[in-house]
Amino acid sequence: MEYRDELVHGLVYNGAASVIAVSGREAVEQMRRIHDCSPTVTAALGRLMMGAMVCASEIKNEKGDVSLIFNGGGPAGRAIAVAAPDGSMRATVVDPQADAPIRPDHKLNVAGVLGREGMLTVVRDEGRGEPYVGQVALQSGEVAEDLAYYFATSEQRPCVVFLGVIVDREAEILGAGALAVFLLPNCPEEVIVDIEHRIGLFAEYTHILAEGQTIDDVLAILFQDANLEITARQPIAYRCNCSRERMERALTTIGREELLKLLEEDGQAELNCEFCRAKQLFTGEDLARLADLAGAVKRADIELTEQEDA
Ligand SMILES: [Zn+2]
């Protein structure tokens, strides 16, 4: 069977706990190529993106999405991953080339590039206007523990979370994935004990994926004798939703004066999408038109305010 990135929802222990599993090697590889990431940043940003996909997969409204904003004070700077319930995801980081010395256990030093002093912010947009914003202090800077802490404290959902990206010496990605197990309300004590016994095995999730197993095979191994029932599955991919129209709107918000200054000083403007690096050139003519538009928006604002005052 040909490999494809995918996400699976399931129930275990006859519905006493739920599972979300992600296999996202191609998406992380695309992210690495777009941003030309160091191996350590590939692992760090890849984990954050897999985590965002787990969160987004629970949103019902297709217009919604989830952003994970990781501010740890490390050399890579602020990292952001966004995922949507349609299975699309994207990510960006201030310095993709940042690196940190390998850990004593020979693992990539994710906390070394992201930092461990700061906050994880989760912006969950359910697609109905005001997004829900949750924020927690970082626990380890290794991402999975930080996200589990967010679920437990901000959403009162006890869980275990494993996020992994396996990169070889040639910087090739062998496997990338996420496994989250949530205890549902009234989860029996014996189920909690059984899950605790399996934690060492759960930690191998991405390693087993990297051996070429399918997501179903890995889950069958991890949840042997735990009544695993797959309830939903969907393909996932790295995909940006930027467009020239979106960038025009962003450019208009800087205001008429700033646009005219840009026109006078540079004669044009080139905008880069921070998630896919797509470039859009706005000529002098474009800038003049947007300045007119920004002026019109402002005039409309003033007229509206005056009417309200009257
Ligand atoms: Zn883009």
Strand order of the largest sheet: 7-6-3-4-5-11
Count the domains. Answer: 2
Instruction: Give the ligands present.
Output: zinc ion
Low-confidence stretches: none
Question: What fraction of residues sit in β-strands?
Answer: 25-35%
CATH superfamily membership of the largest domain: Hsp33 domain
| Sheet of most strands | 6 strands, mixed
Folded structure, characterized:
This protein has 310 residues and is α+β, with helices and mostly antiparallel strands. The protein has two domains: 6-238, Hsp33 domain, CATH 3.55.30; 244-309, HSP33 redox switch-like (CBS domain Like), CATH 3.90.1280. It contains ten helices and 13 strands. It has helices at 25-35, 39-56, 110-114, 144-154, 189-202, 205-210, 215-222, 244-252, 256-265, 284-309, and strands at residues 6-12, 17-23, 65-71, 79-83, 88-93, 119-125, 132-137, 159-167, 173-183, 229-235, 237-238, 269-272, 279-282. The strands form three sheets. It has a six-stranded mixed beta sheet, covered by helices on one side. Strands 8-9-2-1-10 form a five-stranded antiparallel beta sheet, sandwiched between helices. A two-stranded antiparallel ribbon has the order 12-13. A hairpin with a 7-residue loop joins β3 (65-71) and β4 (79-83). α1 crosses α2 (39-56) and α9 runs antiparallel to α10 (284-309). The longest helix is centred in the last third of the chain and has 26 residues, at 284-309. It is globular, with a radius of gyration of 22 Å. The model has no long low-confidence stretch (mean pLDDT 93). Zinc ion is lined by residues 240, 242, 273, 275-276, 278.
